[in-house]
Specification:
The complex is a heterotrimer of chains A (664), B (332) and C (144). Chain A is α/β, with parallel strands linked by helices and 664 residues long. Helices cover 28% and strands 25% of the residues of chain A. A five-stranded parallel β-sheet of chain A has the order 10-7-6-18-29. Chain A has a five-stranded parallel β-sheet with strand order 20-27-21-22-23. Chain A has a four-stranded parallel β-sheet with strand order 2-1-3-4, sandwiched between helices. The two termini of chain A are 20 Å apart. With 332 residues, chain B is of the alpha/beta class. Chain B has two domains: 129 residues, no CATH class; 145 residues, no CATH class. Helices cover 37% and strands 14% of the residues of chain B. Chain B contains 14 helices and eight strands. In chain B, the strands form two sheets. Chain B has a five-stranded mixed β-sheet, with helices on both faces. In chain B, strands 5-6-7 form a three-stranded antiparallel β-sheet. In chain B, helix 1 runs antiparallel to helix 2. The radius of gyration of chain B is 21 Å and the shape is globular. Chain B starts with 5 loop residues before the first helix and ends with a helix. By secondary structure, chain C is α/β, with parallel strands linked by helices. Chain C has a single domain, classed as Rossmann fold, CATH 3.40.50. Helix content of chain C is 38%, strand content 16%. In chain C, strand 3, helix 3 and strand 4 form a beta-alpha-beta unit. The C terminus of chain C is likely disordered. The chains are: A alpha/beta (664), B alpha/beta (332), C alpha/beta (144). Chains in contact: A-B, A-C, B-C. The interface between A and C is large, with 49 and 49 residues.
Chain lengths: 664, 332, 144
């Protein structure tokens, strides 16, 4: 029999205002196993905790029930208290008589009656509690960063600087991500490449960083401190360690009509290519969809011109399995497809472009060498219309757009408008907006400069329709402030497309057992207090995979994620949650039901010998739980027909005892 | 009367025994009465010759016995399986309950089994039953002339809606005609679903109140193979050997049906052995019908290694709040 | 919430990560719901064994509600998907046995849905109260 102490907290008047705390303490005194019961103003205070510690010693308590606020608030506190007094911390149960009683009920008799019942249930549970000891698991001192954009690069650099090896997995042939495609960055207008490419080089040269470009995560197993990840290194048909990036193969490749994804298809590349001059690793890649040699064995020019002998048409995908202590997700974003936005004639006219396409058109390394021209005829545009919130903040059009604000569009549109007016003073630039959102350091000043110094026409209102007519684009829009319909003959229309998580994020989340919101952005462990951790231990979030973000925010989040990773990797061992499943091998049927429902692969089977009543030996297949992998959900306990599987801390008999105590 | 004779089966078994291919034979032998044919283990051709029985009363599904015997006996065991029994056999293989290496499974074509309870309803003091082509001649203490019951009248409940499929996953199959299915096995389930809740409640109260908690349904069930049943385990919170009141039986039968849901092959043994004639298969069939209609058709034991519906899910599954409206719509 | 003077006894199983936190939020926001609802904390809705539900009914509960994270948001990825199947089948079976279908419910309540938690409990308590005492499933031996 347990010797249980009951401690009823007033929480000032938070509980005592609706619950007669003395009556609760008195009533619980008569519960089976209870040897001590008291109440106090603030149990969580030092004095309150001392009452608990003294009682544990004086009454030789084996179990503690604290009737107080939610266990989500102070369970940890009271467990520590018990532990300091020499009691196993898992012998403490909390009856939630604040959030789930005093705060939701009005009158004292009702509140008191319910508080007694909740206390009774906690006493009934503690009577069946058993001391639990957390296990330990080793921490593999290596991190994996998935995604090699600015978020992934920054996270990897910060982790590497702390002395831990990091692998960056990037599905493209080069790291750099979206930022590599940008021209200038707001609000300072520094050139994106000038600030990004040195970081890319740093990453490549850092001896703690290994870049696995043109690779994708295939499988994730394990748990915090000890993930096992299988990475598919796609065949690039070029030996990465030999290729010097000289580009001779690219020059000679006869297949010249491959849409260049780096320039969003606005120009062409070869079948063998290096995405851009500053690519890291600067290694050629052969596109198997276009290479004649790979498709029908006819060509082989690149192999002939490659003096290093780096071309290898027989290369196969390679699977790399590596262990990691922590994983950072930095899968970033993409602009949404504009195919469904017929009202803006995106598919009808070449001169209706997305903002990222505009970014390439104005980039010195872009398809036009930075000269802003109309994609259709190469002429200089005089009237340019920017449309904001294309697919963002959609509500009625949810099936083609997004409900959320994409956050970065207001600022980059201001940047585009300003730069256009700066470089081409002969242009008329219109920006149509729902709201202009500029919350950020020097953001509003930047926007006001666009309006006041550069004379950009900001019009509050949405563009209703863009119709191509001959050379011009007829833009029909409403000006909400003057209440007029506007008709503008534009030469170029730029759509600020909403951004969405990369398509690879959803399957990745499933592999990582990390949760996502309805928009496929990764969910953080706590929106305010744990913004860079996912709810899955050991998985961290960096950059736009968690929500729309600009570069400064991404970089600061990347650093924060890195510091969390470092905080994990400096530990040699982790204590594991002892509230895990446990199989009673004497009752186990070995039927695999538990294994099939376990989301973590924590259950394995082993043949064991059993001595039967007739002294014969029988060999049976029984389940075993890896306590370091089990997260304690309990799915297996219900799948198990014999009840051989039980969950420490939430044993079936404990829950049934609670049910009985409540229904008594 | 079975189309394949007992001689064919016992001869097959005897030759395998004599050849040393198998060491034991799991079959049937006569119990106290002619209608009481029980599972039996044979070790020699002589024993087979003397006791082996194969007739319309060889209803017992032998697959469950393999769990015990493959563990306790060393040497290969020949087992005779009717088509419907093979589903149970496969399901047990799926659940790793039987060591396949130790089993020599022989498929037996079945012409439909007789329900001793239906025969005994019409005849007291049965001394002997002889089979004819059309049915059964029942000899009793009270009459010189035997009473006749046709095969159709005496057909076992489960045979009315025989799965009628071919044997699966066997070492050997004895050729012969297989009984053809007739009735829809979910008719009664649907009839119950279409009753009012009060009618259903009274139906089940009437049925389940007869339960004497003899555990025969559990003990015969080839899906109920737990090393220790929750109802025998004092720590499970539901241990209760005797029926204390009407709820105890409901608890027992709901939990039992739930524990085998998705794993039950609808072999009908529970209802066959119930001494109180409770239509227990209607509970199992309810789950089977629900599973089929909510999550797609699934036959336990059809594919060895298939994933049972309750250890599986689909992100678009029906919500518990939707099932009633959804099913009422289906039945309407 | 007494309806016709009847105060039901309701057992609510809440998963630790979403619904229990949702219930806490209802408390933080002082959103009232009937004291008839007593919450039992479980790590995940998939920890709720049908046996617990039946046990509650056996011991005199008038209604049982299971709350978990929204499908797709389970802290353990897939727990609530199993809950959904298990409870759909269990509730369907209880209905088949003639037990009022309104006495059982599964509701997905996120940690942010304090208001939904309170509204759900108000609605469920009222529904169960209107059904009155749970005569069909109670165990007379165990009743006071």
């Amino acid at each position: 029999m347990q010797r249980i102490g009951v401690f009823v907290c007033w929480c000032g008047s938070n509980i005592a205002g609706t619950v007669d705390v003395h009556a609760v303490a008195e009533a619980l005194k008569t519960e089976p196993g209870v040897v001590f019961s008291t109440d106090y103003q603030y149990m969580c205070s030092q004095a309150g905790q001392n009452i608990i510690k003294d009682a544990i010693r004086d009454y030789r308590l084996t179990g503690v029930v604290v009737c107080s606020c939610s266990p989500r608030m102070h369970e940890v506190t009271f467990r520590k208290t018990a532990s300091q007094a020499g009691l196993n911390p898992y012998m403490v149960e909390i009856a939630n008589i604040r959030e789930q009683c005093s705060w939701v009920h009005k009158d004292v008799p009702t509140g008191t009656e319910k508080a007694i019942i909740l206390g009774r249930a906690a006493v009934a549970k503690v009577n069946l509690n058993a001391p639990l000891t957390p296990g330990e698991s080793l921490v593999i001192k290596r991190a994996l960063v998935i995604g090699g954009g600015i978020a992934g690069i920054q996270t990897a650099l910060d982790i590497a600087d702390a002395g831990f090896p990091v692998d960056i997995v990037e599905k493209q042939p080069t790291i750099g991500g979206k930022m590599a495609q940008l021209d200038k960055t707001f609000p300072t207008l520094d050139c994106a490449a000038c600030i990004l490419t040195p970081k890319m080089v740093d990453a490549a040269q850092n001896e703690n960083i290994r870049i696995l470009s043109y690779s994708e995560v295939e499988k994730v197993g394990g748990f915090v401190g000890n993930f096992e990840v299988t990475i598919r290194k796609k065949a690039r048909y070029v030996k990465e360690d030999i290729c010097t990036g000289c580009g001779a193969c690219v020059e000679k490749c006869p297949m010249k009509k491959v849409p260049n994804e780096f320039n969003l298809g606005m120009d062409n590349r070869r079948a063998v290519y290096i995405p851009f001059a500053q690519a890291v690793p600067k290694v050629a890649t052969i596109d198997p969809n276009y290479c004649n040699m790979l498709k029908n064995g006819k060509c082989g020019l690149c192999a002939r011109v490659c003096t290093a002998g780096a071309i290898d048409y027989t290369q196969k995908d390679e699977l790399i399995t590596e262990k990691y202590g922590a994983i950072v997700v930095a899968t970033g974003y993409n602009p949404i497809s504009l195919d469904k936005f017929d009202e803006f004639a995106y598919n009808q006219s070449k001169d209706v472009i997305s903002s990222l396409e505009f970014e390439r058109l104005t980039n010195a390394a872009g398809p036009t060498a930075g000269k802003l021209v109309r994609p259709s005829d190469g002429k200089h545009p005089h009237t340019i219309v920017f449309v904001q919130c294309v697919g963002s903040r959609c509500d009625a059009c949810a099936e083609k757009g997004k409900e959320y604000c994409s956050k970065i569009c207001c600022m980059y549109t201001a940047k585009h408008a300003m730069l256009t007016r700066d470089k081409y003073p002969d242009t008329e630039v219109y920006v149509f907006y729902i709201d202009v959102r500029t919350p950020g350091k020097n953001f509003d000043e930047f926007y006001r400069r666009a309006v006041e110094e550069y004379g950009v026409h900001y019009v509050k209102g949405m563009v209703g329709k863009v119709s191509p007519e001959g050379d011009t684009l007829k833009v029909q829009a409403s000006d909400l402030i003057s209440g007029k319909q506007l008709h503008i003959d534009a030469d170029l229309v730029v759509l600020a497309a909403a951004i969405e998580p990369d398509a690879s994020a959803r399957p990745l989340a499933t592999m990582l057992t990390a949760s996502m919101d309805t928009n496929d952005f990764f969910t953080e462990a706590h929106p305010k207090l744990r913004p860079v951790e996912s709810p899955t231990a050991g998985v961290f979030l960096s950059g736009a995979c968690q929500g729309p973000k600009d570069i400064p925010e991404t970089v600061s989040q990347a650093g924060a994620a890195a510091s969390k990773v470092i905080g994990l990797l400096v530990k040699d061992k982790l204590t594991t949650n002892p509230c895990v499943a446990q199989s009673n091998e004497l009752m186990c049927n070995g039927c695999s039901s538990c294994e099939l429902v376990c989301p973590y692969g924590a259950i394995t089977y082993i043949d064991k010998e059993f001595r039967m009543p007739d002294r014969s030996i029988q060999i049976r297949r029984v389940a075993q739980v890896n306590p370091a992998v089990c997260q304690g959900c309990g799915a297996c306990t219900v799948a198990c027909p014999s009840g051989a599987m039980d969950l420490n801390g939430f044993k079936s008999e404990q829950i049934i005892a609670e049910v009985d105590a409540i229904c008594r | 009367m079975q189309k394949v004779t007992a001689k064919t089966l016992s001869g097959k078994a005897a030759s395998l025994l004599n050849a040393g291919e198998v060491k034991y034979v799991l079959g049937w032998k006569k119990g106290e009465f002619d209608y009481d044919i029980t599972p039996a283990l044979f070790e020699s051709a002589e024993e087979l010759e003397k006791d082996f029985v194969w007739n319309d009363f060889s209803c017992a599904n032998l697959s469950k016995y393999l769990i015990k015997y493959t563990r306790s006996l060393s040497g290969k065991i020949l087992v005779f399986l009717k088509p419907c029994d093979t589903f149970s056999f496969n399901q047990l293989l799926t659940e790793h309950r039987i060591d396949r290496q130790k089993v020599y499974a022989v498929g037996v074509p079945c012409s439909g089994m007789a329900d001793e309870k239906k025969i005994r309803e019409n005849a007291d003091g049965i001394t002997a039953i002889s089979e004819t082509e059309e049915g059964y001649l029942v000899h009793t203490l009270y009459s010189d002339a035997p009473a006749f019951i046709s095969k159709e009248e005496a057909l076992l409940e489960k045979c009315l809606s025989c799965k009628g499929w071919a044997h699966i996953a066997l070492d050997e199959q004895i050729e012969g005609e297989v009984f053809a299915p007739s009735a829809d096995r979910f008719d009664q389930v649907k009839a119950l679903e279409n009753m009012t809740p009060d009618e259903r409640y009274h139906f089940w109260q009437n049925e389940l109140s007869r339960c004497i908690r003899c555990n025969a349904c559990r003990d015969v069930c080839p899906a109920c193979t737990c090393e220790k049943c929750v109802f025998d385990n004092p720590n499970s919170g539901v241990e209760n050997k005797a029926a204390a009141n009407s709820f105890e039986e409901k608890m027992f039968h709901i939990i039992r049906a739930f524990h085998v849901a998705g794993r039950c092959t609808d072999c009908g043994e529970c209802s066959r052995v119930c001494p109180q004639k409770i239509p227990l298969h209607l509970l199992n069939r309810k789950f089977i019908n629900d599973i089929d209609s909510f999550y797609g058709e699934y036959q336990a034991g059809l594919d060895e290694g298939s994933r049972a519906p309750l250890v599986d899910y689909d992100t678009g599954d029906l919500e518990p709040s939707q099932v009633f409206d959804w099913r009422d719509g289906q039945n309407a | 919430m007494p309806v016709n003077g009847y105060k039901p006894l309701i057992v609510a199983f809440c998963c630790n990560w979403c619904s229990y936190a949702g219930a806490d939020l209802a408390g933080n926001n002082r959103l009232n719901y009937p004291a008839d609802v007593k919450i039992i904390r479980v790590p995940c809705s998939c920890r709720v064994n049908p046996m617990f539900v039946l046990r509650a009914f056996q011991r005199g509960a008038d209604g049982v509600i299971i709350c978990g994270c929204h499908p797709g948001d389970c802290h353990y990825t897939s727990g609530n998907y199993f809950t959904r199947r298990r409870m759909a089948l269990l509730f369907s079976m209880l209905d088949y046995l003639g037990i009022e279908r309104e006495r059982t419910r599964v509701e997905w309540v996120s940690a942010a849905e304090g208001a939904k938690f309170a509204a759900t409990m108000n609605d469920f308590a009222e529904t169960v109260a209107s059904l009155g005492e749970n005569k069909r499933l109670e165990d007379l031996r165990c009743k006071k």
